[in-house]
């Protein structure tokens, strides 16, 4: 058999092995995130969740942030995110939201599809965050509806 066939076979096996390892690590992280959500919220509290939301950073923290994946959860009063690695949590009360929409980029980062974008008052002033989630438009509608309900409940 020609040498290039052995080289191509070796490269193919290596790539498939790496992809399999990445898939298994992703599954383990999503399972861990599911447990973290179950510890934090009762099943009735969770209106919507995405176990593999891609975090694009918080505008108050500037450009030098670790972008990463984690779980995004919407409850009746809170938009909550926990990043898988490094483990960080962000709580955004729905009553502090000032804008819920989509954007194509955030802090100079893009994946060339719409991102869930929220502006809110963080107590220290205006701030914003964006995530890549499945069903971005559905997330926008769900967050906006929950925000309206939360605001109405405080009146």
- Name the helix and strand elements from N-terminus to C-terminus, one letter apiece: HEEEEEEEH
- General shape: elongated
The CATH C-level name is: Mainly Beta
Give the amount of beta strand, in percent: 35-45%
Structural description of this entry:
This protein has about 160 residues and is α+β, with helices and mostly antiparallel strands. It has one domain: Pleckstrin-homology domain (PH domain)/Phosphotyrosine-binding domain (PTB) (PH-domain like, Roll). Helices cover about 35% and strands about 40% of the residues. The chain is built from 2 helices and 7 strands; from the N terminus they run αβββββββα. The protein has helices at about 5-40, 135-155; strands at about 50-60, 70-75, 80-85, 90-95, 95-105, 110-120, 125-130. Strands 4-3-2-1-7-6-5 form a 7-stranded antiparallel sheet. Strand 3 (about 80-85) and strand 4 (about 90-95) form a beta hairpin. The chain is elongated. It starts with a helix and ends with a helix. The model has no long low-confidence stretch (mean pLDDT about 90).
Q: SSE layout and pairings?
A:
Elements: H1 3-40, E1 48-58, E2 68-74, E3 78-83, E4 88-93, E5 97-106, E6 109-121, E7 126-132, H2 136-154
Antiparallel strand pairs: 1-2, 1-7, 2-3, 3-4, 5-6, 6-7
In short:
It is built from two helices and seven strands. It has a single domain (3-154), classed as PH-domain like.
What keyword list fits this structure?
alpha+beta, 37% helix, 7-stranded antiparallel beta sheet, PH-domain like, 155 residues
